[in-house]
Amino acid sequence: MDTPTPKIGDYLIPDGWHGIGENLLPGDAPVDASYPGCQFRMPVAVLLKLWPVNITITGRKPDRNGLFRCKIEWVHDGEASEFSGGKILIRR
Question: How far apart are CA 40 and CA 74, in angstroms?
Fold first, then answer.
């Protein structure tokens, strides 16, 4: 089985969010040298914003719920990105 590629509409659950996640929305291209752009935007309700993220699938196969392990890069504007783990449901 080939490792899938994340895409708009996939369901991302960051570690520590207790099984609650959000669907990925379109990202944006780089604006300037301090902001590298992002693959996706993820709604974060408690912050009332669309957070820029990049996703890398790290699991070779899905768990029994069809979720793949992934690395999430939380992209910052002019500052170093932060990283966390999570799971993603790839919608076919």
Answer: 10
